[in-house]
Design brief:
Layout (H helix, E strand, L loop, with lengths): L2 E5 L4 H13 L1 E6 L11 E3 L5 H8 L4 E4 L8 H16 L3 E5 L27 H14 L4 E7 L12 E4 L11 H10 L9 E6 L1
Parallel strand pairs: 1-2, 1-4, 2-3, 4-5, 5-6, 6-8
Antiparallel strand pairs: 7-8
Helix pairs in contact: 1-5, 2-3, 3-4
Length: 203
């Protein structure tokens, strides 16, 4: 049994990861306020931008999973150095995060990220830019990182069949459910094929 530090466990994808991990591993999770539902590890009420709270969450863990959502205040890129500092302090190397397909390379213009090219339909690039900064911080680190990058993410259902590709979105990928995304993120705990890569995921 592994011990997992989970961030963003109450979000759509994070709640799927939590459900999976909590049934098989010990999970420490950082939450904004105390939850009724108990984890197999510890619920730590706090803030991902507070170093002490993050340190406490990661202490004694074997791996970190972050399904944090971006916001207008760059929480992803501001929290990443704090996560990495706590990982170094506690000797943790493995981190899996949920990104966005916008930070994959564009297929036709491979020097661009998808959010910079015509492939992305989103008008606002604020979220993608925060994701990109977090990715570049991870990429520059010594960690064994994987960033799972879903395209359009409806609630959908768990189909169990999808396509993945390193650094780009599989061709003509339109969507992927939060359930299949969460399952794939969870599977990365046991899968080292995608270490130090971004993975595009879609149906």
């Amino acid at each position: 049994m592994m011990k997992i530090a989970l961030f963003g466990s109450t979000g759509r994808v994070g709640s799927v990861v939590f459900q999976q991990a909590n049934s098989t591993h010990e999970v420490n999770r950082l939450v904004r306020k105390k939850m009724d539902r108990q984890t197999s590890g510890m619920d730590i009420a706090g803030d991902v931008l507070n170093e002490e709270d993050v340190m406490k969450t990661i202490e004694g863990c074997d791996a970190v999973i972050s399904c944090l959502n971006t916001d207008k205040n760059d929480v992803l890129s501001r929290s990443m150095p704090i996560l990495l500092k706590a990982m170094r302090y506690h000797g943790v190397k493995r981190i899996i995060t949920c990104g966005t397909a916008g930070i994959l390379q564009a297929r036709k213009e491979s020097s661009l990220y998808r959010f910079q090219a015509n492939e992305s339909k989103r008008r606002s690039t604020t979220a993608a830019e925060d994701h990109l900064r977090a990715y570049l911080i991870l990429k520059a680190s010594e960690m064994d990182w994987t960033i799972v990058c879903p395209t359009y993410l409806p609630d959908g259902e768990r189909l169990g069949e999808y396509r993945t590709e390193v650094d780009v979105l599989p061709e003509e990928g339109i969507s992927i459910s939060m359930f299949d995304t969460g399952d794939f993120i969870y599977q990365q705990l046991e899968d080292d094929r995608y270490i130090k890569t971004r993975v595009g995921i879609c149906y």
